[in-house]
Amino acid sequence: MGLIVWDNGRVRRAKLEDYMDAVYILLNLIPPGMVTSYSTIAKILKVNSRLIGRILALNRDLIIVPCHRVVRSNGSLGGYSRGVMFKRKLLELEGVAFNNLRVSRRCFLENLL
DNA sequence: CATCGAACCAACC
DNA sequence: GGTTGGTTCGATG
Is A9 buried (19+), middle (13-18) or exposed (0-12) by CB count in 10 A? Predict the structure, then answer.
């Protein structure tokens, strides 16, 4: 599955980098102190959840694209290109609560519905 | 609750 | 073609 894109007169399947702008927009809908999961983003974009991790790993601009706000659906941190310790620090600074090694359920945006 | 393993799929070799 | 990820989900104890 995945998106189909128009590329200079040709229709083709989207490459990972083609998702960056969409991911950027979605991530900016997550307020500080909240997180979402790889699978939530994946469902929106119609890709496999592992691909979201790889798309986020492409992100060079950690200032404007807050990819630290995406964690595993079970609350464990997942990865981060600059190390999960740093990811946890960032989340805590923003007010995300942890139970041991897991992000608290109440900090997941999808649980507020 | 925790652990396990299959399924996922584009990129890279 | 095989391996590899910033993962998930269901099954099992």
Answer: exposed
